[in-house]
Fold this sequence. Notes:
three-stranded mixed beta sheet, three-stranded antiparallel beta sheet
Amino acid sequence: PHISLPTQPISSITNRIQGMVATSFVSPVPVNTISKEAYVRYPAPTMTAVPPSSPLKVVVPPSNHLTLVSPPSYQSTSSSLSSPTVRQPLPNDILVFYIVTLEEKKKKSVTHETIVTEMRKLFLNFNQKDLKFVHDVLKTNVYVHSPDGNYQISPHVKPFGTAVLMKYIIDNLDELIKTTNDISSIKTVLPRMEQGSVKLKSDFVSQTLDFSKKKCITWKPPIPENLLLAFAILSTADINDCATHSTIIQFIYENFPWYHLTRQCFGLTMPEKNLDKANPETKYVLSSSETALVRQQLKNLVVSSMTQLSNIMPRPDIFNTILDPENFVQPEAQKHTRPPFPDGVMVAIALLHIGDDYGWATALKIQKFVEMNFPFYELEMATRFLSSISGWIEHKTLDSEFFNVEKEQGGMMARYQIKSDKLLTAFSWIG
Length: 431
């Protein structure tokens, strides 16, 4: 779905991670573990001149809605629809959003009663089901309740929610068709449903990728990928001057948010290197002559593009390793204060950016993302944050209500996923 959002000049590190509306539901390309040579000699690239670009603009969701400082608390009724004979076609949040969207498209009034009535009419065996969850969902900030009793989808949630709804319908299309009494209702929301879920899934991913790249065009690094690769090798090399594929990719994704924002796989401009198929333990090395050439090329390019790099990177001072002292990037002198958000919001923001194909991320990856983008969370504060969210496994809190939390397979640390029936509620909370 088309999302039209205002743009505002970037003003702080905190602003750099906004714009998640456009970029949250595209699966990243998984890394294949085909083995390669133990060491890969990386040839020095020819310098490509890249002119400095215009000041960065960042996509910002509309935020005229009241900011919450703590999550809404309500009794979960996700089990109210459990049945041995009928599978609920969509999670609670998404199911209510689907009915409200359907009623709005029909230009009908949307009340609690009309939602329940329509839900019982549309879905098989819902007549005897307890639909108390509808009341709970409508109390969240996903919806605006007008004095006349009607409900509307909150403006700051609608673009994101519509994208979520489309993805859930496409991924569960066959199940939804089996459980509905009126297939035409699906077509009202998804006009192309007859093309089937395989075609729609492919189109959804490609169109979202294209949309995200257009929205985030000014985030794209002004440095060619072959030079980024060389810089990552220099920056992550061990005592033997070797860098592994996994540490290189991690370094690039942490320092250049464009790859997370667009779910762009690094190295597509260098297909001959097969970086998307490399074994994570493949080692890369630069010779002394290659290192000298790369340093000179990077030095010239970084100096000419420093304004843009400072706007799109959390820590542009990493380039000080290849710059002359007079061109050093000075670290920000200000003392960063704690963001005015509870830990749950920080975890949700991280998951929307770095979650895997199924929306999961480990505690350490979340902590690293938060520390990189919110400098307050460094050193002892990073330890406090990690300890706090790790405690959600044993002790449930208001923050943890939105997440599935479990221990990593074969590990001791926790991993996290936003609950499917709390996804829109979590997003409205962040908004």
